[in-house]
Each structure stands twice: as structure tokens, then as C-alpha cells.
Amino acid sequence: PEQAARMKKLQEQEKRQKVEFRKRMEQEVSQFIQATGEPRRRFQPMNKIERSILHDVAEVAGLTSFSFGDDEDSRYVMVFKKEFAPSDEELDAYRRGEEWDPARAEERRRLRELAAQQEEAELERGPAPPGPPNDYKDKYRHLIGSDAAKAAARTMEANKAYGCVPVANKRDTRSIEEAMNEIRAKKRLRQAEDE
């Protein structure tokens, strides 16, 4: 019973702390909304429960909120007014742990655009023509001359001893059927002689 009472007391204390923390965050958020020259506000690092309370308060107030920071001890919440909602680039900068610099981001965006335009121009120009950058025949011109290949091509003639044999040159003029019949006849004759 004593332990249960102690637990209940602790839970009530935690609940009170959460309620107080929420009130404090609601006050800070409303101050932030009224501050005209402040598009975003970074809060101190806080634990998971406190961050979730702050996110909830921000959402109810119609603000955008994000958590940044790598480890649990250094994680913090940033709250943005709707009209100053962060771009993906801005969020990436905070995730990397950098300060957001709109001028530098604009410069980076311009460079990226320029690179994209150059890439597009390259694509429009099309690929370089295939083939070697120089004519390999130039290397051997002193050996083959400039018209050796053309002359060789003109005098090209089929070598009669090679390739297709004209019918006149064939020794055996029988068709395949005739040749096969003749072979079968010889076989039969041989078998008859053996018997």
C-alpha cells in the first residue's frame, strides 16, 4: 500500500509537471505568434515527452514544427509560422546541423539550375560521332599509299579454284537419290555374294 501511494504521488507530480510545461509552452508559442519580425523560433533541447507536447501546442496554434538533432540529449524543436514554412533545402540544412542562409541557398540553387541547363544543352547536341578521333589509315599511308585499297578493290575477282565450284568442274554429276540407290544396290550385291 505504501508503494502504491508513492507511485500515485509520483504520477500526479508528473502529470502536474506536464500540465505546467504545456502552459509554459502555450505562453511561449503565443509570444512567438505576436512577435512580428520572427519567422521561426528554436527551442532549447528537450526530452521526447516535452517535444511531443510542444509539437501538439504548435499544431493547435496553426504553426509548423520540426525536431532536429541527432542524439536524444541534443534534440530540439523549431516552430515556423505558416507563411514562413521551411523549404526542403532549409530542413536539410537544419538536419545537417547547419544554420539556414537564404542567400547562400539561392546561390546554390542558381548553380544547380546552371548545371542542369548545361546538361540539357549537352543532351540536345547529341552524342559525339562514334569512331576513332583520327583516321588510322593516316598512320600507314607511307606503307600503303593513298589509293592502294581502291586499286585492290577494283581488281578483285573471284578465284576460280576457291568457293563455289561450277557444275562443269564436278566429277560426280549424279543426284543424291541416284547415288544412294547405287550404294544400296552394291550393298545388296555384296550380301548376296557373302551368302
UniProtKB/TrEMBL annotation:
GO MF annotation list: nucleic acid binding
Segments of skewed composition (Basic and acidic residues): 98-113
Residue span, R3H domain: 19-82
SMART domains with a match to the protein in the record: R3H
Stored CDD domains: R3H_sperm-antigen
Organism: Struthidea cinerea
Region (Disordered), start-end ranges: 98-139
Record-given protein name: SPAG7 protein
Superkingdom to which the source organism belongs: Eukaryota
